[in-house]
């Protein structure tokens, strides 16, 4: 028998929170990534939405509300991980996974770390859609999911199924693209199937096979933008990042330490364009784990430098780790972002306000304010003192329901 949520009963699950209401009482509330925190605060939640936020002295908790004691803790808006994958074998045949097991898998990967929203940047779309529907119906507990579904890639660039199997992934039927016309066709087909964004993967195939067609990026981006959906690019070099920005891409899915530091020409392209980056700093240590320690250090240092360059050039940062391809604990990513010079508030923005704005959801998510979705994280400590505190979660609340509660 699988313990769904660390063996603890879930407040808000057993009762009917939509009617009674839920109150987070005590603790320090960061209502946005920039505003001064509210000390000894209260968040009131009703019908899945935040109904009020303020100090304990100014807000009375209605008697029929269920209270969660948050004293000594930190309350923020629910976190986004804007670069995840549902391609591990554990997600295969998602429609048939027993609900408690699916909830537990989503907990291990996301909800125990405070992620209430995720953007999947490459997985079998039909399968991921089943996971999303089961969460939406309330049958299982998990984050709000957006997905690009299958990615657009040059023919032969994706490893064969037997290699993917060794890496722990399901077989992936990505869309192999030879020309701009094929890129446009593939993008339109995915959008018709209901994906939430388009991902172009610029991994080159082994020579002499040709790389992703240069004019294919823009051909894929245009239909996405016509459908008011974002376009993502996985680059392999600073030149790829420039090509992606010139093609109008919204989010760069990785740093590229393999290509050396990013140069000033990239900053010129970034100017006045609202381009975001998911830094994925931790993945380089993981990808380089079989290489010499000096090479691992060098790669990570270059990736950290690229994030610094990105922020200094005015680029937006969205927290994103490529989870599914790496370990689940995000502590190291917070630490590396901090080493890149990002402050507590900049990291908080990358988890909350920045993705909400980037994906057109700032009226519904990303802040703690009356009328917004009650997606919240209660952290056991104070991440403004130690950024690893972003990974120490006491409660995760989504749509007014406690979907994760840490063991006492
Ligand atoms: Zn990825």
Q: How would you summarize this macromolecular structure in one to three sentences?
A:
With 408 residues, the protein is an alpha/beta fold.
How much helicity do the residues have? 25-40%
Shape estimate: globular
Which strand order does the major sheet show?
Answer: 11-10-12-13-14-15-16
Mean pLDDT: 93
Distance between the amino and carboxyl termini: 21 Å
For the biggest sheet, the summary is:
7 strands, parallel
Poorly predicted sequence stretches spanning 5 or more consecutive residues: 1-18
Structural class, please? alpha/beta
The total of beta strands comes to: 19
Report the C-alpha radius of gyration, rounded. 21 Å
- Strand percentage: 15-25%
> How many individual helices?
13
Question: What hetero molecules are in the model?
Answer: zinc ion
What characteristics describe this protein?
binds zinc ion, single chain, globular, seven-stranded parallel β-sheet, disordered N terminus, 19 strands, alpha/beta, 408 residues
Write structural notes for this entry:
With 408 residues, this protein is an alpha/beta fold. 30% of the residues lie in helices and 19% in strands. It has 13 helices and 19 strands. It has helices at 17-20, 99-109, 125-136, 161-166, 180-192, 216-226, 238-246, 264-270, 282-287, 293-312, 331-339, 344-351, 353-358, and strands at 22-25, 28-29, 41-46, 49-55, 66-69, 74-77, 79-84, 115-120, 144-147, 152-153, 175-176, 198-201, 231-234, 251-252, 276-277, 316-317, 376-379, 393-398, 401-405. The strands form 4 sheets. It has a 7-stranded parallel β-sheet with strand order 11-10-12-13-14-15-16. Strands 2-6-17-18-19 form a 5-stranded mixed β-sheet, with no helix packed on it. The chain has a 4-stranded mixed β-sheet with strand order 4-3-1-5. The radius of gyration is 21 Å and the shape is globular. The chain binds zinc ion. Zinc ion is lined by residues 83, 85, 121-122, 253, 322, 325.
């Amino acid at each position: 028998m699988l313990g769904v949520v660390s063996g603890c009963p879930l407040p808000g699950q057993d009762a009917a929170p939509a009617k009674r209401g839920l109150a987070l009482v005590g603790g320090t509330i960061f209502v946005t990534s920039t505003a001064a925190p509210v000390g000894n605060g209260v968040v009131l939640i009703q019908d899945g939405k935040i109904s009020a936020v303020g100090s304990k002295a100014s807000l009375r908790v209605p008697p029929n509300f269920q209270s969660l004691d948050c004293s000594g803790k930190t309350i923020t808006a629910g976190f986004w991980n804007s670069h995840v994958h549902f391609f591990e074998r554990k997600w295969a045949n998602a429609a048939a996974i027993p609900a408690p097991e699916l909830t537990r898998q989503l907990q291990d990967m996301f909800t125990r770390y405070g992620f209430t929203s995720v953007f999947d940047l490459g997985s079998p779309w039909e399968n991921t859609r089943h996971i999303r529907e089961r969460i939406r119906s309330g049958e299982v507990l998990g984050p709000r999911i957006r997905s690009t579904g299958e990615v657009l890639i040059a023919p032969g660039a994706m490893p064969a199924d037997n290699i993917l199997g060794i890496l722990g992934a399901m077989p992936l039927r990505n869309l192999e693209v030879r020309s701009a016309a094929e890129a446009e066709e593939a993008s339109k087909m995915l959008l018709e199937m209901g994906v939430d964004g388009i991902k172009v993967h610029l991994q080159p195939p082994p020579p002499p096979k040709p790389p992703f067609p240069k004019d294919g990026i823009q051909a894929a981006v245009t239909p996405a933008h016509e459908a008011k959906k974002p376009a993502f690019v996985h680059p392999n070099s600073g030149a790829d990042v420039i090509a992606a920005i010139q093609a109008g891409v919204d989010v760069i899915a990785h740093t590229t330490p393999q290509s050396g530091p990013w140069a000033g020409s990239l900053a010129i392209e970034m100017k006045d364009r609202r381009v975001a980056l998911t830094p994925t700093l931790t993945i380089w240590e993981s990808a380089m784990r079989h290489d010499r320690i000096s090479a691992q250090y060098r790669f990570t240092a270059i990736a950290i430098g690229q994030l610094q360059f990105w922020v200094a050039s005015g680029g937006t940062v969205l927290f994103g780790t490529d989870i599914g391809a790496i370990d689940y604990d995000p502590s190291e990513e917070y630490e590396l972002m901090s080493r890149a010079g990002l402050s507590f508030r900049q990291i908080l923005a990358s988890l909350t306000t920045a993705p909400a704005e980037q994906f057109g959801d700032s009226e519904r998510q990303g802040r703690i304010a009356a009328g917004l979705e009650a997606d919240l994280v209660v952290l056991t400590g104070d991440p403004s003192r130690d950024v690893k505190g972003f990974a120490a979660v006491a409660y995760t609340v989504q749509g007014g329901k406690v979907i994760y509660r840490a063991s006492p």
